[in-house]
## 1
Amino acid sequence: MKKKIKLIIPLFLLTIIILPAILILSGNRAFSKGIVYIDRGAVYFLDKNNSPILPIMQNKISQNQFNKLSSGDEIILLHDGINESYPGQTGAYFIIKTGSENTVPEEAINEILSLKPDEKVYSPTGRNETDKEPVYATCGNTLTTIIKDGKEYSFMYDNSVYLFNLLGNLRYEDDYITETPEFTVRLEDKVDYYVNLTEGWVCTTEPSELFGRDKTGVCTLTDAQIQYIGFIVNCETD
């Protein structure tokens, strides 16, 4: 038992103290304390002014840590600068959870819920939508299936709505992909969307009557889209 304790303590010190220190020394990094709020798979960090900020995961450590968070969790976030987009975005490198079950300020929740469709991370986020009026799902009964490593994972509710609203409404340009997709997403339009988050693209070879889309092809994903698609895939396939 004593030998195990001796091994655990150095690992704890490496994770909590040494690693963040290295990250701070290697660039323009800072610690901020705040509360987490999750909306449709998007993890918002509320700073001391209760302003919603989108942390963009910069490594597998931060991604795994964020996957375990819930709304109301209090965290200390190691991050870089905050850009001027709305909502603001920052690179996330490391998280220390310091509390849970905190009350998320109502004004912060209302601000997040009032974001326009093109400001929400489940929308195309700055990219052109389809030629016709976009189709957005709001019903939790929307069914989505992820096909990964030969297995199918079907689910509904918020994560399903997110992928429906995002992947279905992107503008796909004529192009050819030689890389292999990492997984496939099948929406309620019965169309397969092939995704590679490492390379940052999604493509489809089928038109969609539901979304009024005649074109097929490829769309490059933004950093925010890559982050939250990855978040959903990890949640639904674990």
## 2
Amino acid sequence: MKSYEILRLACDFTQNPLREKLNSTDISSLTTAESKVADSYLNCLNLVIGEICEQYSPVTTEEILEVNNLKLTFDQFSKKPLNIFSVKNTKGRKIRYKIFDKYILVFADKAKIIYSYSPEAATLVSDIDLMIPARVIAYGVAREYFLLQGQGADADIYENRFKESLKLFISKKTAVRLPRRRWL
């Protein structure tokens, strides 16, 4: 999904007339006032994506990196890591490691690392590759926008919608088993 699609939904929720201009063809024709409003919505979107990735549904990747002098600096990673989930050698066995401020102490020559990261800041035409529906993300964007506008009551409404929708989507759903029917 494109970021402008999420922002259009958020504009629907906040009843902002910018909704009509947020499509693939009209984005380049925004006035300066409209682009300021679109930038504030975009900042809200980036805050929500960061929140989702850090607290609810982390985006993970795996890399094999060379270790120099038992140190693996964070600059060697292709993306900025948030959490390190596992460190293994090239054969797939877990190896010992310790995380410091600027590097990871790893007891191997090569390390296969699985870690989570926060996606890069979105633009108006970015692809959002989260496995969360656009509507749920738009609830969070509307919440952030209402908070920026100082409308706390409306922000609370969308806070509840965002949190509940996110919990429902992320929670594991299992089949409900009913007891067998019997004659009374």
